[in-house]
Design goal:
This protein is of the alpha+beta class. It contains two helices and nine strands; from the N terminus they run αβββββαββββ.
Length: 174
């Protein structure tokens, strides 16, 4: 018997079989694939509860009157206009101040139970919206929040007073 010479570089030596059998390799690969599918599937199904209705479309715009001109109480006010989007229930649009006080659009709007594009409210913290803090200085903030059917809140717009109100227009509540 003659000794076997090593196979030249790049050749496969079929007499030596040191690898795992092909059946075991396929079984391991299949187990890894099944595990990955199970992990990704459980992650995807786990997030299903967190998915919700799409955010409402539309927007709001504001106009600030620091002098209180044309305001019954002569105090500074902001006019919030529903710019566009679908008609909304006036009870589902909430205006909040920094302290968490709030009024609904229907509390300050006399136009009916729904809000359409182009309709507006005027907020000054006096009268029908006296639950809100009045505008006393630059930086005072109001947020417009929309409630969905489940009662969850989505902040649609945040307004911050860009300047101090006219000193003669500031109410005694400041």
């Amino acid at each position: 018997m003659s000794p076997s010479l090593p196979a030249p570089l790049g050749w496969v030596d079929s007499t030596r079989d040191r690898g795992i059998s092909p059946a075991v390799g396929v079984a391991l690969l299949l187990a890894i694939v099944v595990t990955l599918v199970a992990v990704f599937g459980s992650l995807a199904l786990g997030f299903g509860d967190e998915l919700s209705d799409p955010a409402p479309s539309g927007g709001f715009d504001t106009a600030y009157t620091a002098t209180g001109e044309d305001n019954d109480g002569n105090g500074p006010y902001v006019t919030i206009t529903h710019q566009g989007g679908p008609t909304a229930d006036a009870d589902d649009i909430v205006i909040k101040d920094e302290a968490g006080n709030q009024v609904t659009w229907s509390d300050v709007w006399t136009g009916g139970p729904v809000v359409r594009a182009g309709e507006y409210v005027h907020i000054d913290g006096v009268g029908s919206d006296d639950a809100l803090q009045p505008i006393c200085e630059a930086g005072d903030t109001y947020r417009i929040v929309v409630l969905n059917d489940a009662g969850n809140e989505l902040t649609m717009y945040e307004w911050t007073a860009p300047s101090d109100p006219d000193p003669s227009a500031v109410s005694s509540e400041c």
